[in-house]
Amino acid sequence: MIGGRPKNVKQILISETMRLDPVGFGEASGLYEPDTGRLIIKRDQLKNLQTYAGTLLHEVAHAISGASDTSVDFELELTHLLGMVASKAI
C-alpha cells in the first residue's frame, strides 16, 4: 500500500527482546538501524495485524525520513504514509 519496501531497508526481523526505549522505561516496539538497514519488530507486536502494521509503518517512516521520533521530518513522513494507506483502503 505504500509502494513496497524502501530500498534502504535490507531486512525486516522479528525479535523476542528489544533495546530499552530511550523515552520510556520498557523495551521499544520496533527499531530501524540505518547503518545495517535492519528493521526489527518485537514479537509481541504480531498479536494482531493493527499493532504490527502500525509498528511497521512507524519504523518505515524512520527509514524513509532518516529522522528521529521527535522531529518534524519524521512526523511528516508518518502522516504521508498513513494518508497513502487510508486512501487505498477507502
Can you tell me about this structure?
The chain has 90 residues and is α+β, with helices and mostly antiparallel strands. It has one domain: Zincin-like. It has helices at residues 49-65, 72-89, and strands at residues 11-15, 30-33, 38-42. It has a three-stranded mixed β-sheet with strand order 1-3-2, with helices on one face. The termini are close together. The relative contact order is 0.18. The mean pLDDT is 91.
Give a nutshell description of this structure.
The chain is of the alpha+beta class and 90 residues long. It is built from two helices and three strands. It has a single domain (11-89), classed as Metalloproteases ("zincins"), catalytic domain (Zincin-like), CATH 3.30.2010.10.
